[in-house]
Amino acid sequence: MELLGRTGATLLFGAGLGAAVSRLLNCRGRTEEEQTAGLLGWVPVLPVPEPLTVRASELTVSPGNSGAVMKYGFPSLANIRSRESYVTSYDPRTRTASWVIEKLNPTSLTGASNRKFCEFKEDDSVHIFHRATNADYRGSGFDRGHLAAAANHKWSQKAMEDTFYLSNVAPQNPNLNQNTWNNLEKLCRSLTKHYLNVYVCTGPLYLPRQEDDGKLYVRYQVIGRNHVAVPTHFFKVLILEQADGKGVELRSYVLPNEPIDEKVPLERFLVPIETIERASGLLFVPNIMKRTSSLQAISNN
Fold this sequence. Notes:
By secondary structure, the chain is of the alpha+beta class. It has helices at about 15-25, 30-35, 65-70, 135, 155-160, 175-180, 180-190, 275-280, 285-290; strands at about 80, 85-90, 95-105, 145, 170, 195-205, 210, 215, 220-225, 230, 235-240, 250-255, 295-300. About 40% of the residues are buried.
C-alpha cells in the first residue's frame, strides 16, 4: 500500500522508502537504538534541549472541566489557554496551537449539541497581529482542520462551539481531513467503550525533508494575509486509562498533511512517543509517570 500525494513532498511510508530514510539517518550518525526503533526510522527526529526547571505538571488552570483535562500534566508551558472543552498552548508565530488536550468519555460524547449552530471564528484572546482569520483560509485549498474535534464534545453546546475557534484549527489537506484524520478521530471516540477515560493531545508538526542537495530543510507553506503556517504533519497522543485501575496505555500517531490511501490502516501511523517528543519539543512521558507506576506504550513494531 502506498500514500497518495506529491512524490517526495513529505515523508512516505513504505518498505522501500523506509529503508532509504534509514540509510539517511545512518549517514547522519544516529545511534543504533534510534535506527532500529520501528517506525522511529520513518519520521525524522530533532534534538531538543533539556527541559526548563519549571515542571509542566506543576502548572494549574482555573477550576472546572478544563482542570480535569490536565491530569497528566502540560507538554509545554507557553501561552496556555483554557476553554470549556479543552486546554491549549498557542503558538503566535504559526497562528495555530502547539497542542490541544481534551478528555473523552461516554459522558462527553453524549448530548444534544449540534454543529450546525457553530461557526468558525477568530480568537479574540489572541493579539490581532498573531491570530488567524476565516479570510486566511478562503480560497487556500485547505480545510479548517479541528485539533480538538467538535464531535468529541456533544455534552455542551458551548463546549462544541469552543472547538470552532480558529486557534483550535490548522490548515489541513481536505482529503486527509475528511477521510483518514476523521477515521482517527472516530477511533479516539470508540476507545471510550474500552477505557475509563481517553485523553487526547493533538498538534501540528513541521518536519524536515531531504532536498536535491542532500541536505535537510524544514519548509512549509503559509496561507492568507496573516501567514498561517501549514503543518507538514499532525500528531495525536492518546493516554488511555484502564478501567481496572492497573495503569495507562499510550498510543501516538503521526500523519502527513496530504491525501492518504484509505486502504492504509491507522496502525501504520503509530510511532514511538519519543519521535513526537523530539520533533515537537514537547514532553509527555515524564508527566505521565508522575501519575502512574504502570505505563504501556503501544506501537507498530
